Amino acid sequence: MLSIPPDLAAFLVEAKRRTYAGLDDDATVATPLLSGSKQLEHRAPPFAYRDIYFGMGFFVGQETVSRDDRVVWSMSYSGGVRAEIRDRDSILATYKFLRQALLGVSIEQPYRGPRLFEQDGMIYRNDVEGALDRFGGVETIAGQDGTLLYELRYGGGLLR
Question: What is the end-to-end Cα distance of the chain in Å, rounded?
């Protein structure tokens, strides 16, 4: 049985709220490790969080959490707005709504946002299975009429 580091879930919630969900790309480090990527970081020793992703309309990325300089947890993700959505304002409005949903991340499921979040005519859903040591899920954003605007798939867990 894997031992989940104490306070890992609480640290993940704090890190996510202090990076993309709370600050958007303002949390991006000036010189990312990988050229062309966005890299967001948060530290609260003994933990350090790093989120590196590429793209915008469609994007892929990976989050890692280190404890005492050893990566102990990771999550990979990919997704974005529907390919037909090309208008920058529509993309930005969808991602603004997404960040609002992601602020609802919980200690019980510290991966993405809550199971359900509704605001400004949009509906966020997060369907996840598993626990902090091994999980996978799909999040979607739909308009009030049920039209799918965005989808993301993610998975991860404790490294061993």
Answer: 11
